[in-house]
Write a structure and sequence with these properties.
The structure is a homodimer of 233-residue chains. Chain A has 233 residues and is of the alpha/beta class. Chain A contains ten helices and nine strands. A six-stranded parallel β-sheet of chain A has the order 6-5-4-8-7-9. In chain A, strands 1-3-2 form a three-stranded antiparallel β-sheet. At the A-B interface, helix 5 and helix 10 of A face helix 5 and helix 10 of B.
Chain lengths: 233, 233
């Protein structure tokens, strides 16, 4: 039973709240019984596993939680990265909010068969907030690192200023298709918009907000890919 | 220029991070130039408006920020509540995450014409995290408090265990329609499921997560209402 805050495993967990430490160690933290169970189901073994009251004093575990949620269990895992692939996937460019990146990992796991492709300027998918938002999907379908130039031929970029709507565009496309989504403030940069085969918008009501949250836009886009495109999902 | 942390306006802002204080005062805080500008555009006058370097020392404003984002401006506003209405709206029951509630307020503003209806167990839409997630939509379309029993006849409850899919259900419905969405862990309680006229699910891939994030589910549901239902949105 760990009873000292100077324990090396506790120190590691605290350190992994920082991106630099995660990058150096190639490790990340998952907090809570649901996530640790999801890791087990997906065949991930923890590098460290601390259970409150069994391996460590509960108060000490609380103090290393990055989420402040009083987790009863915290696991440390080795980061994994998928290879791009699948018939339908989503490429993110400049999606800097970790909650959005994690939520999109979860939505993509529910709606399409390829991993989330992370381009420049995206939040670290292994940050505590991203892992919590992705839930078990971070283990079941880890994201991939991707460069836009390597995407398959059929890409469609979400662009609020485009004339065509996504539903019309995707019915004319054949898999593999990659949906490109940018950050909600700046959208996709010009070079991505130019290079994408097609641009399309999600029609919104007049007088409403100019854009959706990036995770909402990506999720609706994947929903349209899943339900309006020919071919097996 | 405010130069003391004991200033009453700074103390008010700090106090309003707590729900109890918001409920007692009927006031809430909006942080950042975008939100304060959105309030102005929607015709909301602030009770208090503090600009860093003009009204208050920047370091003091930083210290009362609930979001820790180094806001240059913070406004205090009086809470407003809409009346239920519109041809399409969403009713939330037990959606306890403030980010989800705020995001749904933004999505509903983009996709449907009625205010978000907040039932029991929902996060306070005027908490700092909810306001930030809702962005300008909190001012353009404030939420309504609602009881399930008061909803219109056409309600459809999202229920992962239902057989019909939402797309098929909504094509057969006429406005006004209210989509009912529960918390992601427990879904909707039995009394709501029993009382709702219809239940429907959002079809997800086999082998994926059992559910979507509550904000994702609500947003896709509203997307389906907007695009698959007869009648004007």
């Amino acid at each position: 039973m760990i009873t000292s805050p100077d324990n090396s495993q506790l120190k590691l967990i605290r350190k992994l709240a920082r991106k630099k430490a995660r990058d150096q160690a190639g490790l990340f933290v998952a907090e809570g019984e649901d996530l640790v169970e999801a890791a087990r189901v997906s065949g991930w073994g923890p590098e460290v596993l601390l259970r409150a009251g069994e391996d460590v004093e509960p108060a000490l575990l609380d103090r290393v939680s990055a989420l402040g949620s009083g987790s009863r269990v915290i696991g440390v895992y080795r980061e994994r990265w998928s290879e791009p692939g699948g018939q339908r996937s989503v490429y993110l460019h400049g999606v800097a909010d970790p909650g959005n990146v994690g939520t999109i990992i979860r939505s993509a796991h529910a709606l399409c068969d390829g991993p989330v492709l992370l381009g420049p300027g995206c939040a670290d998918p292994y940050s505590p907030k991203a892992v919590r938002a992705a839930m078990g999907s971070i283990f079941a379908r880890p994201p991939a690192r991707a460069r836009f130039a390597e995407l398959p031929e059929w890409t469609v970029a979400l662009d609020a200023s485009a004339v065509p709507v996504l539903a019309d565009q995707v019915t004319a496309m054949a898999p593999p298709v990659v949906l490109c989504v940018g950050g909600e403030r700046n959208g996709l940069p010009d070079e991505v918009l130019r290079a994408a085969g097609r641009r399309a918008r999600l029609p919104l009501r007049d007088g409403g907000p100019q854009s959706l949250n990036a995770a909402m836009a990506a999720t609706i886009g994947l929903w349209e890919l899943a339900h309006r495109m020919a071919g097996d999902a």
